[in-house]
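Q: I'm building a small set of examples for a reading group on sequence design. Run inverse folding on the following structure and report the sequence directly after it, with nothing in between.
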């Protein structure tokens, strides 16, 4: 398979109310099976979303919850479910003093563009809406798909075998993200070419309808193992009093397991701790009060870390 990435020249500055699909149709001769990669910025510009509000105000509106914060940098989960620095708000390639947020529903925007392109050209294409994001474990950024239509965003290899006959269980190329990243390389950051046509896509990637959209690439809270930054997770576990977003419940962790973890390294007598009808009971002798307080805090914190509200009851140790 050979993929060809062709950036479009001549789009120019996009203004509120512009018909992005018409601009694309004017400058491209589309072919069936093409994938049209469009930066989110021109979608937001055409929708009139550019604003002169302060970044703090806009960030607050775009944020569902904070994942991590270090100095002026905030990594947040947006209302779309995306986890991005500054909620994807951008002040590059726009008029000084203005900020551009992400489109409110990128998948819907991709579907609308796809429908309009078919109306204008009579050609069925797929559409990807891209934006730039960092990676938690790697330096640098790459474009990812935040919206798509007419394309399978991910291709699961589960159930297939490799050339050696080994079964594949977790391999799942993120096709939409890979096409977005390739399009970014082809267009360049400063070439003023916000649209790239990708030719040669595997027909198996394409869908007759709009498909599941890029939202299917987003991990939900219950399967997100990195829903908070390391510092934020530690703080949430210590000061929280109930399960918090980003610390989903661990179905494999029992109250007895929480007790075992909490007592690790403590000298508090194990025989004075018991699980009784969903509550952890700590029996305190005359000299146990400080140790019991430490244990109670550890029990609650470890419970929060595992997405479980832990009830602790401290009682006086009964004499034998």
């Amino acid at each position: 398979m050979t993929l060809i990435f062709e950036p479009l020249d001549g789009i120019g500055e996009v203004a509120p109310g512009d018909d992005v699909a018409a601009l694309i149709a004017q400058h491209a001769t589309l072919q069936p099976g093409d994938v049209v990669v469009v930066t989110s910025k021109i979608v937001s510009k055409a929708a009139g979303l550019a604003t002169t509000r302060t970044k703090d105000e806009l960030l607050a509106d775009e944020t569902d919850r904070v994942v991590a914060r270090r100095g002026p940098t905030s990594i947040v989960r947006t209302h779309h479910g995306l986890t991005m620095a500054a909620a994807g708000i951008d002040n590059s390639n726009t008029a000084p003093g203005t900020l551009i947020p992400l489109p409110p529903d990128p998948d819907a925007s991709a579907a609308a563009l796809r429908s309009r392109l078919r109306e204008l050209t009579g050609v069925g294409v797929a559409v990807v809406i891209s934006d730039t994001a960092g990676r938690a474990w790697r330096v640098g950024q790459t474009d990812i798909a935040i919206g798509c239509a007419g394309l399978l965003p991910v291709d699961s290899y589960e159930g297939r075998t490799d050339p050696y006959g080994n079964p594949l269980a977790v391999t799942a190329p993120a096709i939409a993200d890979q096409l977005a990243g390739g399009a970014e390389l082809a267009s360049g950051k400063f070439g003023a070419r916000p649209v790239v046509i990708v030719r040669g896509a595997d027909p198996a990637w394409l869908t007759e309808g709009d498909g599941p959209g890029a939202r299917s690439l987003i991990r939900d809270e219950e399967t997100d193992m990195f829903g908070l930054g390391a510092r934020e997770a530690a703080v949430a576990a210590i000061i929280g009093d109930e399960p918090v977003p980003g610390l989903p419940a661990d179905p494999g962790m029992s109250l007895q397991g929480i007790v075992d973890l909490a007592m690790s390294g403590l000298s508090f007598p194990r025989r004075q701790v018991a699980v009784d009808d969903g509550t952890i009971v700590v029996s305190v002798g005359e000299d146990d009060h400080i140790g019991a307080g430490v244990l109670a805090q550890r029990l609650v914190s470890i419970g929060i870390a595992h997405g479980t509200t832990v009830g602790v009851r401290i009682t006086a140790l009964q004499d034998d």
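The chain has two domains: 4-49+103-218, 230-316.
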